[in-house]
Specification:
Chain lengths: 355, 156
């Protein structure tokens, strides 16, 4: 009797399972909205985009190289200069922190606020403060960047979108007990208009005010994020700031290759006098290979190796700290020059991400 | 006194029963077919053993352009599930009605990247849902608007 009951039960379970498996999905082909349709907005992401880092902690280090500096005289922008100070930099590196937190994240608008901190320590061999004031200044106190930024992604419809980014950076060789004037805060911004024709492509054009190569600049920008049909290859480009190709080895491992421009304008406290700001305009190109690997859950490892190539390492004296725009044609004097040998660099970090 | 006690117990029982039915009716407003704002899929939400689950019942593009075959859950981190058809795939799991038009404690799966997120669902009106998928804290998430679909022809 018990066996019969068991057999009947098993048969019923089988029937239910078969019924579920063989559900007629065609009945859902002719559905209509109960009241009205929702509006479709273009997504800020495309398929296969690299993980979006909410929080990132990283350490950056460079191999030894030579650094030179001129005398502080005042030069025409295209002037030739002679070496007054020279030394070997045995260590360059520091901590990098970044947080990018969504404030509003809906399908019709995404607004994120973030903060970043970047520290660069230089160990310059035997830099003498009397004869080598610039190198000694770099050696004595590390360069810091503390910034706040905001990004707004505003879909206009199911294809077009606007992106606005604004950033305020507090850069210099300050310490946490010795801040300089907030008047020296550097403001950057970017605005882009773009389209996403399908799930694997988004492009945009726009303009930016940036300190990415050291000096203040206004440049056009182009974004081009694309993923192949098989979702293996692609590009992530925000030209000229960064250009990357990418290859997804599998869903947990991504290789990126390309370059990034990095830099800023830093107030050097020990060389600033009479209310003026003596600023290092530092810009570098970093061709590199980057490996992103899922560790656990939404925590990912990020490792980069590449070269650090000097783009600009000059010094300007800002009268009363007032910023100016030299651009390509400006004739404002450059206070001093430096040149840096190319070095290898490595970066390793851990991120809390969203895919 | 004894009669009063009995009456009180009966009344309490009735109150409890009706409020439970009320909760159930409110909670069951989630049941039905819904369309996310990207209009790529329909999800049918059902109640199973007191919890709410949602599966994909319609795809705008049912065929994978690379393989030419019906789409499967190819991004699933579990290798053994990569060949499971997306049509019929259970994307919403384990939602419990918390009252006040909110369902929580569940998860939402994103077949585009194979990730599972915490999720909370809010009923904006009888035919509109706010669905927020998030990682750990609700701050790290995104809200989408889903609309209810019905078979009007069948009603007639």
């Amino acid at each position: 009797m018990k066996l019969k009951t068991l057999m009947c039960s098993l048969f019923l379970v089988h029937l239910v399972t078969v019924a579920q498996d063989e559900e007629d999905y065609s009945i859902y082909d002719d559905l209509e909205y109960a009241d009205e349709s929702s509006t479709t907005f273009v997504s800020p992401k495309i398929i296969g985009l690299s993980p979006n880092r909410f929080i990132n902690v990283a350490w950056d280090v460079q191999s030894p190289y030579t650094i030179n500096a001129s005398d502080t005289l005042g030069y025409a922008p295209d002037a030739s200069w002679s070496i007054k100070e020279t030394s070997n930099v045995s260590y360059t590196g520091g901590l990098r922190l970044n947080a990018n937190i969504p404030v509003i994240s809906r399908n019709n608008v995404v607004w994120q606020m973030g903060a970043n901190y970047m520290n660069t320590n230089f160990s310059i061999d035997e830099a003498d403060p009397t004869n080598e004031p610039i190198l000694s200044e770099l050696n004595s106190r590390s360069l810091n960047t503390g910034g706040l930024f905001t990004t707004v992604f505003k879909p206009l419809n199911d294809k077009q979108f606007l992106i606005f980014q604004g950033q305020a950076d507090y850069n210099g060789n300050y310490t946490f007990t010795d801040f300089h004037s907030f008047v020296l805060t550097k403001y950057s911004a970017a605005i882009l208009w773009g389209k996403s024709p399908h799930d694997r492509l988004q492009w945009a054009i726009g303009a930016t005010r940036t300190y990415r190569v050291g000096e203040l600049n206004y440049v056009p920008i182009i974004m081009y994020n694309w993923t192949s049909k098989r979702e293996k290859w692609g590009t992530e480009i925000l030209f000229p700031a960064r250009v990357h190709g990418k290859y997804w080895m599998n869903k947990n491992s991504l290789i990126m290759f390309g370059y990034e421009l990095e830099g800023g304008s830093y107030h050097l406290a020990g060389l600033s006098n009479n209310g003026n700001s003596f600023e290092l305009r530092r810009g570098e190109v970093r061709p590199r290979i980057e490996w992103n690997r899922k560790l656990i859950g939404f925590f990912w490892l990020n490792a980069q190796v590449g070269a650090r190539i000097n783009y600009g390492f000059t010094y300007d004296e800002l009268e009363n700290g007032k910023e100016f725009f030299r651009g390509f044609f400006g004739q404002q004097e450059i206070s001093a020059f430096s040149s840096l040998g190319t070095s290898l660099y490595g970066l390793v970090g851990i991120s809390f991400v969203s895919l | 006194m004894k009669k009063f006690k009995t009456l009180a117990i009966i009344l309490a029982g009735i109150f409890l029963f009706t409020s439970m039915i009320g909760e159930t009716e409110e909670g069951d407003k989630l049941i039905g077919v819904w369309e996310p704002s990207n209009k790529k899929i329909y999800l049918k939400i059902d109640k199973i053993s007191g919890k709410y689950y949602g599966k994909i019942v319609w795809l705008r593009e049912p065929i994978d352009p690379v393989t030419g075959k019906p789409k499967t859950d190819k991004n699933n981190p579990d290798e053994s599930l990569k060949d499971v058809p997306l049509k019929g795939f259970r994307m919403l799991k384990d939602f419990v009605y918390k009252g006040d038009g909110e369902w929580a404690d569940g998860t939402i799966y994103d077949p585009q990247n194979g990730s599972t997120y915490n999720c909370v669902i809010k009923l904006r009106d009888d035919n509109t849902l706010d669905i927020r998928g998030y990682i750990g804290l609700k701050t790290f998430g995104r809200t989408d608007v889903w609309k209810r679909l019905v078979n009007k022809k069948k009603k007639k």
